[in-house]
Design brief:
Distance between the termini: 81 Å
Subcellular location: Nucleus, Nucleoplasm
Number of helices: 6
Helix content: 40-55%
Organism: Oryzias melastigma (Marine medaka)
Low-confidence stretches: none
Strand order of the largest sheet: 1-2
GO molecular function, one term: DNA-binding transcription factor activity
Function: DNA-binding transcription regulator that regulates endothelial cell proliferation and G1/S cell-cycle progression. Specifically binds the 5'-[AT]NTNN[GT]GGCA[AGT]-3' core DNA sequence and acts by modulating expression of pRB-E2F cell-cycle target genes.
Family: Belongs to the THAP1 family.
Shape: elongated
Structural class: mainly alpha
Number of domains: 2
Number of strands: 2
Largest sheet: 2 strands, antiparallel
Length: about 190
């Protein structure tokens, strides 16, 4: 079986009379060829059997175009710096087939579960998180120190802060509870 062109909506191969060309070894040129294919095939993976047919190259890209025109050569040769530029226009049949394939890959409403649906939780930057942590720890230390100066029983101070932390229902609550547990162990 012959190699088939990897460009989307192109069905040329060496059996259809079209010349096929392997991807170049030069990494810069190879990347340009891959980008050309990825215009319509976003998930394209290059393999050792990947080829592009001559229909995607302009006549100027062939190094022996004059010889072919005069009949001295049959097989077209690409110039070393040739890059594919011609994207094929899909037929109605090809478009319908692509739509069907796309629809079959999409999960239906009945198949969608809560595990597949993920909501993105906005994340704070590290600087903001650090500032909030510093603010909470400063506030906590201020409350503890003022309680010691007023000779309020530490247990009462601790319970007050614990309830403040439980009422916030956010990251401050966790921080308050963490600091409280640490200071309770030290007392």
């Amino acid at each position: 079986m012959g190699k088939r062109c990897v460009v989307m909506f192109c069905s040329n191969s060496c059996h259809t009379g079209q010349s096929v060309h392997v991807f170049p070894k030069n990494p810069v040129l190879r990347r340009q060829w891959i980008r050309f294919v990825e215009v319509k095939r976003a998930n394209f993976k290059l393999t050792e059997n990947s080829v592009i047919c001559g229909a995607h190259f302009e006549k100027e890209c062939m190094s022996n175009a004059l010889k072919i025109a005069m009949g001295y050569s049959v097989r077209p040769l690409l110039s070393p710096d040739a890059v594919p530029t011609i994207q094929p226009a899909p037929t109605e049949e090809q478009m319908a087939k692509a739509r069907r394939a796309c629809r079959s890959k999409r999960p239906r409403d009945s198949q969608a579960t809560t595990s597949t649906i993920q909501t993105k939780v906005p994340r704070k930057s590290r600087a903001v998180e650090k500032r909030e942590t510093d603010r909470v720890s400063t506030r906590f230390l201020f409350i503890c120190n003022s309680a010691k100066e007023k000779k309020v029983p530490i247990l009462m101070c601790w319970q007050t802060l614990w309830s403040m932390g439980n009422n916030n229902n956010n990251k401050n609550a966790v921080l308050f509870q963490y600091f409280l547990l640490k200071t309770r162990q030290n007392i």
